[in-house]
TrEMBL record:
Coiled coil (UniProt feature): none
Name listed for the protein in its UniProt record: Protein kinase domain-containing protein
Domain of life: Eukaryota
Similarity comment: family membership: Belongs to the protein kinase superfamily.
Domain Protein kinase residues, every copy: 47-322
Length: 398
């Protein structure tokens, strides 16, 4: 492996294959390993289709074997994500410094010419999206103990990003496919810190928010208000998915069951939350604990951000250091359709609800802040990955 720990002197320039120019003033950058494009090409058999393991909002991901024998997940950022070398390395430097048992480790990157490539530790057991959520074909069995370990691990990883890393990192894309599992099924959050890799001059351009609508906190989707509470909302949705074994939105189910959060609220009101625990466990789980986890999920997805607990409190709730029994829970906030949101938010035209009777009562009702909609314009929902324009990039709650 060709590694170049960063310790740029004023004139220092790493010499790699191909040319790349690093400003003299990239001081303070250290701890990042640089890979040559040639090496990554060799590791992935020239980025061959057979080595491709996925494609997401930032580009394609390949599995590769590095020179030292390590297996890596090699993420080739798409053209939109390319920013200047200095800005790129500054962000990478922040991510590389972060180490936690529940966060995917970044090995290093490649910044030759136009290439912007991230090299991560490869996780053997794929993501929660491919293994647990939505009746996948995976042969991994997730018993209740494993699920509790996964939920607590994710909560710890996120609490670390939110409360211990300085400056705090808001993930912005907590979802099942960003939770990877190692060989012991320890969960690792991936893609943290990537949001800032979008060049500053692109913040007004449509920024692809990967994932389905179901993970987006209403205030983030509507007003572009980005705080840690938006991540906590997404975590709440994920928590309910892990306990129930189903995806937050499933349009193949009968209408009244399509949205997990709605269903959850209904059963919560009827005091039969246990009915939503994954039937795949055949009743072999701690019912009290499972209902507690679902309640925590409801708390994290409360409509008003201030009602959602911080991630460190969530960890304590999950581990029973903090009691949730006496906390009042109100109806969770939920957005079910972007077109609906746009129309309602703009309050200009009336959507013909006759064709979509299920949306009438379920959609999020826009608050007075909806006038801001233009600064967080929602594009037509042509794909499940919504395209939004956000200007807010920083945590306003800290
Ligand atoms: N470090 C990794 N180890 C193993 N697989 C990974 C890793 N990173 C990403 N992947 C796989 O590549 C897929 C695409 O990742 P990504 O580009 O982040 O898109 P998304 O998170 O939207 O699925 C993931 O769903 C996952 O299956
Ligand atoms: Mg990802």
């Amino acid at each position: 492996m060709t590694c170049f720990p960063f310790s740029f002197s004023r004139k220092g320039r790493p010499k790699t294959q191909g040319s790349f120019d690093v400003d003299d003033d990239v001081s303070g950058i250290h701890n990042v390993r640089l890979y040559t494009y040639k090496e990554l090409r060799a590791a992935t058999a020239d980025f061959s289709q057979t080595n491709k393991i996925g494609e997401g909002g930032f580009g394609s991901v390949y599995k590769g074997r590095l020179k030292d024998g390590k297996i890596a997940a090699i993420k080739v950022l798409s053209a939109e994500s390319r920013q200047g070398v200095k800005e790129f390395l500054t962000e990478i430097n922040v991510i590389s410094d972060i180490e936690h048992e529940n966060l995917v480790k970044l090995y290093g990157c490649c910044v030759e010419e136009n290439h912007r490539i991230l090299v991560y530790n490869y996780l053997e057991n794929n993501s929660l999206a491919q293994t647990l959520i939505g009746g996948s074909q995976s042969n991994i069995y997730f018993n209740w103990r494993t699920r509790t370990k996964i939920c607590i691990g994710i909560a710890r990883g996120l609490a670390f990003l939110h409360e211990e890393v300085r400056p705090h990192i808001i993930h912005r894309d907590i979802k099942a496919s960003n939770i990877l599992l190692d060989k012991d099924l320890t969960p690792k959050i991936s893609d943290f810190g990537l949001a800032k890799l979008i060049p500053p001059n692109m913040t007004h351009v449509s920024t692809r928010v990967a994932g389905t609508i179901g993970y987006l906190a209403p205030e983030y989707a509507i007003k572009g208000q980005l705080t840690r509470k938006a991540d906590i909302y997404s975590f709440g949705v994920l928590l309910m998915e892990i306990v129930s074994g189903r995806c937050n939105t499933n349009t193949r189910l009968p209408i009244e069951e399509q949205y997990l959060l709605e269903r959850m609220w209904e059963l919560y009101e009827q005091r039969v939350l246990v009915g939503l625990v994954d039937p795949a466990m055949n009743g072999d789980f701690d019912a009290e604990e499972a209902c507690k986890f679902l309640k925590i999920g409801l708390l994290c997805t409360q409509d008003a951000p201030k009602l959602r607990p911080s991630m460190s409190t969530v960890v304590k709730m999950l581990t029973s250091e903090v009691d949730v029994d006496d906390i009042k829970i109100t109806k969770p906030g939920l957005i079910t359709d972007f077109m609906d949101l746009k129309v309602r938010g703009a309050q200009k035209s009336k959507l013909d609800m006759k064709d979509k009777p299920d949306m009438k009562n379920k959609s999020y009702t826009i608050s007075s802040g909806s006038d801001n909609l233009d600064s967080s314009t929602l594009s037509s929902a042509t794909t499940t990955a919504a395209t939004l324009t956000f200007t807010a990039m920083y945590d306003q709650s800290s």
